[in-house]
Amino acid sequence: MSTRKFPTTVTAYVITVSDITVEVSRKKIKNMNLRVRPDGRVTISAPLSMKEETIENFVRSKTDWIRKHIADAEEHPPPETSGYETGDPFYVWGERYVLLVIRGKKNSLVLRGNEAILTIKEGGTSSQREKIIREYYRKALIKETEILFPEWETITGLRASGWQTKYMRTKWGTCNITKKKIWLNVQLASRPIECLEYVILHELVHLKERKHDEKFKRLMDLHMPSWREIKASLNRQTIDRTE
Q1: Which of 15, 113, 123, 177 is the most buried (most CB within 10 A)?
Q2: Contacts of residue 221, Cβ cutoff 8 Å, sequence gap at least 6
Q3: CA-CA distance, 69 to 176, in Å (whole number)?
Q4: pTM of the model
Q5: Residues of the chain by 3-state class (helix, strand, coil), percent to 5
């Protein structure tokens, strides 16, 4: 059963079914629509007249499908949506900055106070801005990974043949088990540092356990008891409550 009942006159509320939190919106529609959002949120649009029990039973019948898609969402980075314009939020290791785009003789990105100052040559395009930012993230990621990667190899006793960084649209990290080589997504530099540590550990553990089975989870629990919480937060953007 859900943890709370709501009258049918409520148009937006939250229920919990089988430990799954679902955001319910009642609308003037004929059919019920279930979605797992890119950030892992589960939402349902339901007709105004539909019984609460019907909604709960529908969620319960879809729990396996929901859990699978939540797990997929947590493993995959969200698409980049910023146009890299002045005033856009910009994150480095989970810290929020405000982007300031200026013209100059040399392309660069510098953090100063709460601003990320992006200097771009005259005539620079949005794709060039993106290239500068990705390069900034790549260098930041390399700097931290050079410290953290050998530390986690020592902690786990697992050794990779090497690691590299690259921009990936669908994964935070990946591992070639045969070659024992690991790749890390440059976008990790936008997330808190513990997210990078989680991904490093995750990929190292894959050198021993290919699947996300109970053996894999036990190894993760052994080395990082809070990994589930970090994994769940990995794709969630930092929210500035002052906005």
Answers
A1: 15
A2: 227
A3: 24
A4: 0.67
A5: 35, 25, 35
